[in-house]
Design a protein that fits this description.
There is one protein chain. With 560 residues, the protein is of the alpha+beta class. The strands form 5 sheets. A 7-stranded antiparallel β-sheet has the order 2-1-5-4-3-6-7. Helix 1 runs antiparallel to helix 6 and helix 6 crosses helix 7. The longest helix is centred in the middle third of the chain and has 29 residues. It is globular, with a radius of gyration of 23 Å. The N and C termini lie far apart (72 Å). The relative contact order is 0.11.
Length: 560
């Protein structure tokens, strides 16, 4: 069957519209601030074989977990047994491919005239699914069973309604069941909405036409990636970076190493020299590690290429079993994000060596999340304050790095101060730029930030940050940014500086300060326009002392 290009473009736009509608429904139906405010969730569609057609939302590294999760459902519930009205969920990272156990996946098969046409899928974080600590991501985790409830692919809903027994299990395993179930129902609802819209599209254009256009979308992406690779000279580049430790063996840094080899329209990414899987929770499953590496490939070539399963076709991964980016069951993976973030940056840096025109300095590596569990929050019930910690992007050949954003999910924001203070017994004492946190360069890195919380009730706090000792790096002569810091009671005699992964009991009146690093610099700092340096000093991004030391600029002389 031949479909004209105009129809292909129209239907492709309609598919994007469906995914955007699913995303809108997800965020506006979710209960928790981490979903409705920080948008830690995505929604999209796959074809009938689980291949990802579209992901809507800021966390595009959810792409490969979509495919993995759908196929895990099909392994337990074969296609011929599926019926309209069913929805499934899974959160075991070793079965569903989700980054860690709090990231639940909802999967709904879609039908038209009894024919399976695809799946609506959503991945979204849950603020608490049990485990060692409130937030389910404990520093003391040493195996996946410490990370909370693990669900294999199970049927969550049928045409008759929600399976109450499944919700009872989830409810009994969470410290905040109403919030978790509210978020989960939002996920399932958006996937059901997605397949309804997809079925309507099939009615309008024909089922076979929609299936063919889905295949065309993936083929076009594969062709665009291959074309970008052909435009890059053949060659090899290696890069590595380090996490401070894994939370268990505090004296042993964790190494992420990649060798990128580009041949024609193919790319081989070899992670064999990375550290063995860790005892602590910094492992990152293979599905997530590959997904972030593919995002780095797009950043190093053409970021306008849509994220779908077509990206995988020109890329080969070498990831031996038992390394930190391909851990084996039952390794814990709850603190995967700094590892995946570092993986993204080392791949991006290696590809920048092969394609200097698209080179980008690494983003700040001090990211992660905090989880604070309260026995009694503003509404009188137990609550878990779960917040994502952003960093900043690195400088490029064209411009400074953006400030206070995530490298792999730029539009995933931090929680607004007003929301945090309204819902939880906490006072945000400070949220400000962190002077001198950015790596200096002709184009400096984005600026990091300082955020301080005064807790108003006794609570259990887990800080999952990163890179207190190993900062990001600059490129082309640019400088490294500051390292991150986490401090309890920074202005008191009982001041304690925490490591990157720690759980602590806090008393009412205690203060938690997070200083999140900026991005790396691009190019020789002395080549930066002195007027730009003066603007940075005036805006508080750079101190006058750092302007002289790093940039060789006397601000008083420039502005006189």
């Amino acid at each position: 069957m031949s479909i004209d290009p105009i129809t292909i473009e129209v239907v492709t736009s309609r598919i994007r519209e469906i995914a955007s509608t699913m995303e809108h429904a997800l965020y506006h139906s979710g209960y928790s601030p981490v979903l409705r405010e920080s948008k830690d969730g995505t929604a999209g569609l796959t074809d009938a074989d689980g291949r990802v057609v579209i992901v809507s939302g800021g966390l595009q590294y959810h792409s490969l977990p979509y495919q993995h999760a759908v196929r895990s459902v099909l392994a337990r519930y074969p296609k011929e047994t599926l019926v309209p009205g069913e929805s499934f969920i899974v959160n075991d990272p070793y079965l569903g491919g989700n980054p860690h156990a709090p990231d639940m996946v909802a999967i709904t098969p879609g039908f038209t005239a009894g024919v399976l046409i695809g799946f609506g899928v959503s991945v979204a974080h849950k603020a608490d699914i049990g485990g060692l600590v409130p937030g389910s991501s404990g520093a003391a985790s040493r195996e996946i069973y410490h990370d909370g409830l693990l669900l294999p692919p199970v049927r969550y809903q049928t045409a008759a309604g929600i399976e109450e027994s499944i919700e009872a299990i989830i409810s009994r395993n969470s410290r905040i069941p109403d919030v978790v179930l509210g978020d989960l129902r939002a996920q399932v609802g958006c996937t059901r909405l997605g397949v309804e819209r997809l079925a309507a599209l099939c009615t309008e254009y024909g089922t076979e036409s929609i299936a063919q256009i889905m295949r065309e979308i993936l083929e076009r992406t594969a062709m665009r990636v291959a074309a970008e690779l052909r435009a890059i000279p053949d060659g090899c580049a290696e890069m590595e970076g380090f996490l401070d430790h894994d939370g268990a063996d505090l004296g042993t840094p964790i190494r992420i190493h990649v060798r990128a080899e580009k041949k024609g329209d193919r790319l081989i990414l070899d992670f064999s020299k990375s550290s063995p899987q860790a005892r602590g929770p910094v492992n990152c499953n293979k599905t997530t590690a590959q997904a972030v590496a593919l995002l780095a490939l797009l950043a190093a070539t053409d970021p306008s290429i849509p994220v779908n399963s077509g990206i995988t076709q020109p890329v080969e991964f070498i990831m031996p079993d038992g390394i930190v980016v391909n851990p084996q069951h039952p390794a814990t993976v709850n603190h995967y994000f700094p590892t995946s973030h570092l993986t993204y940056n080392v791949v991006l840096a290696a590809l920048g060596e092969l394609n200097p025109a698209r080179a980008v300095a690494p983003s700040g590596l001090g990211n992660g999340a905090i989880a604070i569990g309260y026995a009694r929050a503003r509404g009188g019930k137990p609550a878990v304050q779960y917040e994502l910690m952003c960093t900043a992007l690195g400088g490029t050949s064209d411009h400074d790095g953006s400030s206070i954003v995530q490298a792999m999910n730029h539009i995933t924001p931090g929680a607004p101060v007003e929301i945090v203070e309204t819902e939880y017994p906490v006072r945000v004492r400070r949220y400000d730029i962190w002077t001198d946190s950015a790596g200096p360069g002709q184009h400096r890195g984005g600026v990091g930030y300082v955020r301080e919380y005064e807790v108003l009730e006794d609570c259990t706090m887990t800080a999952r940050t990163s890179n207190h000792h190993f900062p990001a790096w600059g490129i082309r002569g640019g400088g490294a940014p500051a390292t991150s810091r986490t401090t309890v009671n920074p202005d008191r005699d009982d001041r304690i500086e925490l490591g990157p992964i720690e759980t602590r009991l806090l008393r009412a009146g205690d203060v938690l300060r997070l200083e999140q690093s900026g991005g790396g610099g691009f190019g020789d700092p002395h080549a930066r326009d002195p007027l730009a340096v003066a603007d940075d000093v005036r805006n508080g991004y750079v101190s006058a002392a750092a302007a002289r030391a790093a940039y060789g600029v006397d601000v008083d002389a420039v502005t006189a």
